[in-house]
Design a protein that fits this description.
33% of the residues lie in helices and 39% in strands. With 113 residues, the protein is an alpha+beta fold. The strands form two sheets. It has a five-stranded mixed beta sheet, with helices on both faces. The chain has a two-stranded antiparallel ribbon with strand order 1-2.
């Protein structure tokens, strides 16, 4: 796989579509959602949605700084994809998480304070 500036090569439109679809699913199901991004070097993405008066606020938690940067650089594509799905979004925050291992060997993602 080719990398640019130490980051995996990503199709920004595909990433925006994938993330917007995940946000839509999270909103429809009324719960948090965690997805794996492609290429695998991007890691997992955890999504939390809250809605007030039909307007959404999304919090995206990513595993790597490069994934955070790619999403931030392509925020307009993400917002466009969401609006094409009929979703009004007030705010999208993208935060970096770090991985912790719990007692049963499962990984958990915890927000960096």
């Amino acid at each position: 796989m080719q990398q640019t500036e130490g980051r995996p090569e990503v199709n920004p439109t595909d990433l925006a579509d994938r993330v917007s679809n995940a946000i839509r699913l999270s909103h429809q199901n009324g719960r948090q959602l965690r997805i794996r991004l492609h290429p695998p070097e991007l890691g997992a993405l955890q999504i939390e949605i809250s809605a007030r008066d039909g307007v959404l606020t999304a919090r995206l938690e990513v595993q790597t700084p490069s994934t955070r940067q790619v999403i931030l650089e392509n925020m307009s594509l993400l917002r466009d994809a969401l609006s094409q799905n009929g979703m009004a979004v007030e705010r999208i925050s993208v935060q970096l998480a770090h991985e912790n291992w719990n007692d049963d060997g499962q990984s958990e993602f915890t927000h960096h304070q």
